[in-house]
């Protein structure tokens, strides 16, 4: 990308007058599950072993819908694999979310005595988790406590020993990356942070004391009150929808929800610069700047005046990803990528 102000475009460059409209960096969703697709009637069905080919077709649809909402980059926190990363340009994959046996991410019934790779949604592309026990098996998104998607534990149950977490942190560091943790409770978050985990997903029950610890240790984390507490403590928070099945359509609603407790600029940064930092791509995405990827959205209104413009389908005029126009309702900006190869 090149950026110039008040200068005529280079020879051969088409100029499009968007006077009166607003250009914003492409949005980033830092917590998605692209393989937890639409098409099933409930959460239980979504976590079952959907045939891989069917799930691949559904994932393609879901990814396209995300792009048309203005999200030019996403970070998958469990479910996607390397083949999907290769298939979707600039799609960032965090790896399968890890869970101890019986923990959040273990989708087997309480009475099951079958092999965990046959009944758990873990270990299959249609699932969002994998089972690991012991430090030798733990090597980068980790479930540190219970959640809404599993039957065998509750939010207050911590997961993983210090030795297991140490193995994960050591392994990810050797690959120049980091561990991020699904954590709701103070106990779970503190357990993760004290063992070197650098990302906290959810963090709904965050309090002031723990927020100060997160800020001191440069932990990126993100409930409504938790967002306010984290912001006031100086914690870097990121936009993450964490939607599954039929709820993906509400991905943009997060902007309206966050506007109840956060300043508009903080919300916009959480979906651009902050996410880029958490992905360690802050030198390539998240800003409209020379040398960065040409990922942008065109809006009818200024999000720094009304952030809910990002929650409106009608107010999103165009989506540009990697200099290609992926979606547009502007006559002068025709779509330049073919999404229908047949």
From TrEMBL:
SUPFAM superfamilies with a match to the protein in the record: Composite domain of metallo-dependent hydrolases (SSF51338), Metallo-dependent hydrolases (SSF51556)
Domain Amidohydrolase-related: 22-321
Domain of life: Eukaryota
Bilayer-spanning residue ranges: none
One Pfam family recorded for the sequence: Amidohydro_1
Family matches, as InterPro entries: Amidohydro-rel, Metal-dep_hydrolase_composite, Metal_Hydrolase, Metallo-dep_Hydrolase, OTAase-like
A GO term, aspect molecular function: hydrolase activity, acting on carbon-nitrogen (but not peptide) bonds
The protein's name in its UniProt record: Amidohydrolase-related domain-containing protein
Source species of the chain: Fusarium oxysporum f. sp. vasinfectum 25433
Classification of source organism: Eukaryota, Fungi, Dikarya, Ascomycota, Pezizomycotina
């Amino acid at each position: 990308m090149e950026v110039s102000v008040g200068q005529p475009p280079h020879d051969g460059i088409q100029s499009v007058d968007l006077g009166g409209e607003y250009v914003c960096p492409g949005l980033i969703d830092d917590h998605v599950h692209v393989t937890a697709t639409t098409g099933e009637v409930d959460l239980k069905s979504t976590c079952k072993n959907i045939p891989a080919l069917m799930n691949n077709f559904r994932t393609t649809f879901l990814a396209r819908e995300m792009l048309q909402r203005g999200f030019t980059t996403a970070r998958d926190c469990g479910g996607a694999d390397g083949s999907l990363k290769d298939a979707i340009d600039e799609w960032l994959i965090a790896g399968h979310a890890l869970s101890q046996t019986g923990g959040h991410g273990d989708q087997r019934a309480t009475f099951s005595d079958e092999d965990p790779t046959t009944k758990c949604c873990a270990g299959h592309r249609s699932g969002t988790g994998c089972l690991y026990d012991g430090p030798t098996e733990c090597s980068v998104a980790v479930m540190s406590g219970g959640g809404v998607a599993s039957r065998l534990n509750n939010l207050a149950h911590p997961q993983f020993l210090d030795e297991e977490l140490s193995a994960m942190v050591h392994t990810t560091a050797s690959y120049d990356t980091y561990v991020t943790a699904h954590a709701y409770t103070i106990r779970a978050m503190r357990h993760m942070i004290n063992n070197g985990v650098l990302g906290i997903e959810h963090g709904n029950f965050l309090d002031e004391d723990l927020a100060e610890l997160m800020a001191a240790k440069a932990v990126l984390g993100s409930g409504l009150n938790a967002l306010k507490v984290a912001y006031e403590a100086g914690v870097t928070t990121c936009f993450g929808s964490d939607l599954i099945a039929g709820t993906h359509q509400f991905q943009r609603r997060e902007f309206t929800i966050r506007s109840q407790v956060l300043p508009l600029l903080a919300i916009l940064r959480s979906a651009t610069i902050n996410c880029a930092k958490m992905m360690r791509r802050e030198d390539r995405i998240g800003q409209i700047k020379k040398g960065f990827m040409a990922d942008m959205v065109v809006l009818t209104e200024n999000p720094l005046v009304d952030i809910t413009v990002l929650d409106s389908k009608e107010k999103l005029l165009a989506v540009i990803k990697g200099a290609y126009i992926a979606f547009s309702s502007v006559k002068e900006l025709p779509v330049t990528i073919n999404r229908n190869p047949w």
